[in-house]
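Example 179, ligand guanosine-5'-diphosphate.
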Amino acid sequence: AAEPGSSYRVVLLGASGVGKTAFASIFAGAADSMDSDDCELCGDEMCEKVIEVDGEAATVTLLDTWDAETDSGWAEDCHMQTGDAYLLLYSITDRASFLRASELRITLRRFRPAQHTPIILVGNKCDLVRRREVSVSEGRACAVVFDCKFIETSAAMQHNVWEAFRGIVRQLRLRRDSR
Ligand code: GDP
């Protein structure tokens, strides 16, 4: 078996209803993980597991900032400080969630001014083509402004979700290796 490798805390951020829980469930589920059923610390909002990316194992702890908007924002603030990397989700069917992602990006910058924190802007629900409110080019342009990567996903179709998780690990490694 491979070594556990480096350990990273990845935080899911985004408006309510964009698909954070769906992402966390896919991560917690067996698909594509090295240990088929092993998800330690598998509480509601945190899941740790070893995944293989480019032939190298990485321990990823995924934190879900459930309903961060409805409470005082404490949990969100807390996660803003503890994450090594962020998946910033919006729904392509919900322009308000896209605007929320911009706000969260600005908040992140305030919390993490010094380091270059890996972030991927994730446009989820790309299966709902007829309900699209945010175009692919808008998403991509926003990511350029945010200075982060961009991907469109569908948690419902399990499309590109693991690509997003692997992408964030790759960015974390690049940062690690450049130190
Ligand atoms: P959260 O509030 O960010 O945790 O969002 P949830 O994961 O609870 O998702 C909100 C709703 O959107 C649920 O009914 C999900 O089934 C649905 N949903 C999540 N991701 C997708 C997706 O990629 N496509 C579609 N069609 N529905 C999705």
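Summary: Residues 31-38 have pLDDT under 50 and may be disordered.
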